[in-house]
Amino acid sequence: MNFHGETINTSSTASATEAEIASASQRLALRPYFQSQNTGQRVWDEPPSGASTIVYASAEARKMAQAQLEEMRATYAQAASARRRERQAEERLLS
């Protein structure tokens, strides 16, 4: 029961949470943003209109961003696994 007195189906709630975590992990993606030197305006995916000089991130910066993305995906996967183990332990206690 939740604090509203409603009964919660823990197995479907756990499955939904696990599915949401897995889905979120797959949606993680690197996206470029561009920032105007003149105005400071940031724009996702494409340079601001009227940009005369575009400087892209270095190979080292892209490599670091990719490593961070992989670490985040691993963290999401670990969270999903931990939640699955918790759910299985709860089910064993209830049976």
Oligomer: single chain
What is the share of helical residues? Answer: 55-70%
Largest sheet: 2 strands, antiparallel
Structural class: mainly alpha
Q: What's the quick description here?
A:
The chain is mainly alpha-helical and 95 residues long. The protein is 57% helix and 6% strand.
Task: Walk me through this protein's architecture.
Helices cover 57% and strands 6% of the residues. It is mostly helical. A two-stranded antiparallel ribbon has the order 1-2. β1 (33-35) and β2 form a beta hairpin. α1 runs antiparallel to α2 (59-94).
Please give a handful of descriptors for the protein shown:
2 helices, 57% helix, mainly alpha, 95 residues, two-stranded antiparallel ribbon
